[in-house]
What we know:
The chain is of the alpha/beta class. It folds into two domains: 16-253, Type I PLP-dependent aspartate aminotransferase-like (Major domain) (Aspartate Aminotransferase, domain 2); 257-358, Aspartate Aminotransferase, domain 1, CATH 3.90.1150. The chain has ten helices and 14 strands. The chain has helices at 16-26, 41-58, 72-84, 98-110, 208-211, 224-229, 239-254, 257-277, 304-316, 341-358, and strands at 5-6, 64-69, 90-95, 112-118, 139-145, 147-148, 153-154, 167-170, 187-191, 202-207, 284-285, 296-300, 319-320, 331-334. Strands 2-10-9-8-5-3-4 form a seven-stranded mixed sheet, with helices on both faces. Helix 1 packs across helix 7 and helix 3 (72-84) runs parallel beside helix 4. The relative contact order is 0.17.
Amino acid sequence: MFNVYNFNPGPSALPSEVKRRAKEEGFSKDVSVMELSHRSKEYENIHFGTKEKIKHLLSVPDHYDILFLQGGASLQFAMLPMNFLTPGKKAGYVLTGSWSEKAFEEASRCGETYTYASGAHDQYRSIPEIHTWEPSENTAYLHLTSNNTIYGTQWYSLPEPHLDTPVFIDASSDIFSKPVNWSKVDLLYAGAQKNAGPSGVTIVIVRKDLLEDANTTIPKILQYTTHQKKDSLYHTPPTFSIYTMGLVMDWLKDQGGVEKIYETNAEKAGLLYKLMDESDHFYQPHADQLSRSMMNITFRLPSVELEQEFLSHAKEEGFIGLKGHRSIGGCRISLYNAVTLQSVNALHDFMNAFRRNHSC
């Protein structure tokens, strides 16, 4: 047997300590965590304990609520406009890749929208340069995607707020990878399956006062206030996913918290970007240098045939999940929090050796 190095883009790697605890503790009793009633005291301890851990790790202010929902970020694409895009208002979207396009398309089904800025003209190689928001009149909210898994770009500095226009962020692929400046964020949402835990639970962190004016004419299950008032227990939550997410929060705390994990993520990404920059274009990142993601490195090799050989040899050596998204091809290395520095060093050595053996 040889080591398997998991670079899958999502669902992605979980820390080995989390998997051990889930196995040994989650199934240690006659009634496992998955079998607990969500109304039981045992599960409530897990549920509210996980919320407190998230609040501590992300330094969430007291005037924000943390919700656990289902349906992934894709459901949030619809819930956001249904709750906040009221008649007479419009929503501005920054397009930086496929997921922001999907969010924009879904919002456009619910009300009036406009493209605030876009990187589509350059095949989404860079993040638009927005320093201060200047929204159109009657803008209900502005929306951006903080990290773009398919194109390998990421926001490092968020725009300065503009008056009272709320800013909503899809942070599905970089939540918990770096600190959050809450003075620039009014609602943040993220599917858990990349940095927060297994698939099945979605985190929504929202300013409480925003919910006071949210739309109440839509179905109750789609109203944020429904879940807020019931502490995310309006219906059966994804209990085991929330339990495992709590274990991930424990692991993050043991790593030194979000600030420390940010330093580790920068080191991991730096190793691979440096290798590519010094490869004489053998490995060519898709993203412009100032927009490069620390979570997802997308790149091409000199030919499609060489890319296939690279992926085949990598799999033989135990490196899985390196194939690029079907929409753009190429290769992709996902470096979420649970991907260890040891795994990155092993991939670094493999890539160096592959280049030496295949360069002209």
